[in-house]
Amino acid sequence: MTPPRRGAVQGTITRGTTNPNRLRRVDRWLAGPAAARLRQAADPLVVDLGYGASPITAVELHHRLSVVRADVEVVGIEIDPARVAVAKPLEKPGLSFRVGGFELPLDGRRPVIVRAFNVLRQYAEDEVPPAWQLVQQRLAPQGLLVDGTCDEIGRRSTWVAVGAQEGPVSLSISLRLGGMDKPSDVAERLPKALIHRNVPGERVHDYLNALDAAWARNSPLSSFGARQRWLATVAALKQEGWPVLDTSARWRLGEITVAWESVRPRAGS
Fold it and tell me: Is residue 117 part of a domain?
């Protein structure tokens, strides 16, 4: 990704496929563990970046975050003018759409949350850090970029939380537990920064192996349901020293969040 030119749209048009309720898992996290940032924001501005061919995810995001803060403002940003034209009739107080990319054309305003889902997955790995940095420069001081990926109907989802000042701080995994074979099945939906790092010698590979091992050890709990087995799995990881950042209230949702340091790519690999 080249340095931005003044007024230039930064990014490329993605496939744009989406479905209603596809991003419910990350939205639930934004309205939960990440909600304090929105509550405390001087300007409750949130961006759905690269929302795709349908504006439904931006509409849903506005609805879900309105519960956290009634005056939230969601702006859907898409690089394809045709997609923005389709979304325009859905505008209402607190929800609007405009053409743009990672440069975030917001007339100088700084969003507290930028959700970019299934966007950078379609870029090259070496384009991820510049894209993160470009968005970070435009966030509010306590702002957060959420860069994630999910499957077509949102049953498997992962995301990296990137702070405006801290850089990447955590990796979250959220799964539909029913019918899951093993936790590492989510590997194909890792964010672009990690998806090619799921190989021996990399931290994220160790992490997914540890999840699988704990899941296997707790197979006797299957008779009590997949949720009980998952709760025991995450508790075991925490006991082993993995920096689990959330609580059992989140685990019950099929979710686990760990500190970025435990999964970040190794230098030079």
Answer: yes
